[in-house]
Design a protein that fits this description.
With 628 residues, the chain is α+β, with helices and mostly antiparallel strands. 35% of the residues lie in helices and 21% in strands. A nine-stranded antiparallel beta sheet has the order 6-7-8-10-11-9-12-13-14.
């Protein structure tokens, strides 16, 4: 029986300027924690001990945060006798790729899994969301001398903290790891492939081989099943040679903006998008989504990357996944990775699946087929929204619902695509990316909420995405249960529910708190006239941390939190209160202080509700402009 690999979470800390007085090599340390036993090991500037550890556990799996881009290369480089500081500076300062720096890294087999989300979010930000301590170590990374014993102890403490937090991130995202491992086991792949990204694994499983540029990226193919009459001009737009480019003459994304079923739509080389802005209605809200749209188009119209030697394998994987999904077998999840990742990989020039013509064919066909469907159902409904793979409609009566499903069935038979249907009784829609759909039955048999949300204001939050949660809850309660905003916010006393997480980017020198500004007359260099300008008084408290957990404050002495570029006035962190306090300690289970300004959160929730309903000042001005 095959031995189950152990999981080792790890993190390297490197001080490239801190050179040992005798060897001249940079200071480094690493913390390892074995997952099941939670036993840890710290290795400091000891390549022999690192090699011994590696030799003992090289067949196991090492898990880190951003380890694919950093830690794995420090690890391998040290085992190859390289200086950690040299590797660090090449990766961090010069922005080199790991294989460019540690060129013989391939000689060191290492099963590495990177738990960092895509798109990337810093570990400190995730720690902030989780309510954990997000203070930085006081030992600066540009320290130009060897570390003292106290500094080493502090560095170990903070490194250990980050490894423990990486474990928490892993546990919140464990499904991704299990999918990766599942692919290795299901397709009997060599463990060395575990280091690949999901897109790279998909290419390997499908047997894709890189192909030189075929030069046919814009030779679009239009399936014969597309039937357009009223909106035939949309297909003609793609057929026009002048539109076969991603960027127009003004350097902007090349796109077609047109009215379809009374709603302004945007089409181009991404998904179709349209929505009635600031819309609310009750009645029959009929929603249909195309099941597995892009994979189905690739199979039905032979638009799979031409670099795949056995296209039928992709269909077999899709069919197997659907059969497993029907019986709720968890083995379908690794297959979902291959099915859903193949389209994205066909647009990635560094992936063996790269085939831009087929990627364009899939995307354009998806848009035209959705327009085709809208054209057929338009007489029987009011279109509310179109998105990449579905449409939402307001329908007056059951007779029209039946008629819509009848014409949609013809579309399904003709295209070979399958529609999935849902019904709701209310919709609140700010735009195509922000809405809330409310069903007649609010909960399923297991007590799980059945309402559907999308967008930062109303989406369901989780431990790795927990920003201003009280505002989201207040808005959802208001829309779904008609609960006053004040009731939700005033009844909550958990500090974490009110947190706003902000991070200082590398473009800024530092963050500062409680700085003040004055209005002074300064010379406008363009006009040569003296004008009143807001000028920083060069005061305030400079903050050493890079990530901050911010709360609204009622204290008179509290002011805002700012960030400053070299030689420029400080700028306020976006979407933070004018008066705030910061708590970067662990706040899990902590209660709110009496100076937390709950009215700030009530006003913010009301402002966002007004944006949904179109009653905010900004939307009103826009409407007035249009009417004029």
């Amino acid at each position: 029986m095959k031995k189950e690999p152990r999981l080792f979470f790890y993190d390297f800390e490197v001080y490239s300027k801190a050179k040992h007085p005798l060897t001249g090599r940079s200071f480094w340390l690493v913390v390892f924690i074995e997952y099941k036993t939670r036993k840890g090991k710290v290795i400091i500037n000891d390549e022999e001990a690192l090699m011994k550890f590696y030799q003992s556990y090289k067949d196991d799996i090492f898990i880190g945060f951003n380890s694919r881009n950093y830690d794995i290369h420090i690890f391998k480089g040290l085992l190859l006798g390289m200086d950690a500081g040299y590797i660090n500076d090449k990766l961090i300062i010069q922005g080199k790729k790991g294989w460019e720096v540690v060129r013989e890294g391939y000689k060191i087999p290492l099963n590495n899994f990177d738990i960092m989300p895509n798109p990337p979010i810093s570990l400190k930000t995730l720690e902030g969301f989780m309510g954990s301590m997000i203070k930085e170590s006081s030992v600066p990374f540009d320290l130009d001398r060897w570390l003292t014993n106290e500094e080493i102890k502090e560095t170990i403490k903070y490194c250990l903290h980050d490894v423990k937090q990486t474990i928490l991130v892993f546990e919140a995202k464990r499904e991704e790891f299990e999918s990766q491992l599942g692919l290795i086991e299901m397709f009997n792949l060599d463990m060395s492939l575990f280091n690949k990204t999901k897109a790279q694994l998909s290419a390997h499983i499908l047997g894709a081989e890189k192909h030189e540029n075929r030069g046919d990226e814009f030779d679009f193919i239009f399936p014969e099943v597309i039937r357009l009459d009223k909106y035939k001009y949309i297909k003609e737009w793609y057929e026009n040679p002048e539109n076969r480019r991603y960027v127009d003459d003004k350097g902007k994304k090349n796109k077609l903006i047109t009215e379809i079923a009374g709603v302004e739509h945007v089409l181009g080389f991404g998904g179709i998008h349209a929505a009635i802005p600031n819309y609310y209605t009750e009645g029959i809200i009929l929603c249909c989504d195309v099941a597995s749209l892009y994979p189905s188009i690739m199979i039905n119209f032979d638009f799979l990357s031409r670099n795949v030697k056995e296209p039928l394998k992709f269909k077999d994987i899709r069919d197997k996944r659907l059969s497993l999904k029907k019986i709720k077998d968890k083995k379908e999840k690794p297959l979902k990775v291959v099915i859903n990742g193949t389209f994205g990989a066909s647009k990635d020039q560094f992936n063996a699946l790269f085939d831009p013509l087929m990627a364009n064919n899939v995307c354009i066909t998806g848009q035209l087929l959705l327009v085709d469907l809208i054209e057929k159902v338009e007489p029987y409904c009011e279109l509310i929204q179109s998105n990449t793979d579905g449409i939402y409609m307001k329908v007056e009566n059951r007779e029209n619902v039946n008629k819509i499903k009848e014409v949609a069935k013809e579309w399904e038979v003709r295209t070979g695509l399958e529609l999935e249907w849902d019904e709701y009784i209310k919709i609140y829609q700010k735009d195509v990316n922000n809405y809330l759909l409310i069903p007649e039955k609010l909960y399923d048999e297991k007590g799980k909420p059945r309402w559907k949300t999308k967008g930062v204001y109303v989406k369901k939050l989780n431990d790795l995405d927990y920003d201003l949660p009280i505002v989201n809850k207040a808005m959802v309660n208001y829309f779904v249960f008609n609960t006053p905003i004040e009731e939700t916010i005033n009844s909550c006393d958990e500090l974490r529910e009110f947190q706003k997480i902000v991070k200082l980017s590398s473009a800024y020198k530092y963050a500062l708190k409680n700085c003040t500004f004055s209005k002074k007359k300064v010379l406008n260099e363009k006009t040569g006239k003296m004008v009143l300008k807001k000028v920083w008084n060069e005061d305030g408290e400079i903050l050493k941390d890079k990530t901050f957990r911010v709360f609204a404050s009622t204290k008179e002495e509290d002011k805002g939190i700012y960030k400053r570029k070299e030689g420029e006035n400080p700028e306020k962190f976006a979407n933070t209160p004018d008066k705030c306090f910061i708590n970067n300690d662990d706040i899990k289970g902590k209660k709110i202080p009496n100076y937390l300004d709950k009215q700030y959160y009530i006003d913010l929730a009301q402002e966002r509700i007004n944006q949904f309903l179109g009653t905010d000042k900004k939307t009103k001005k826009k409407k007035e402009k249009v009417s004029k």
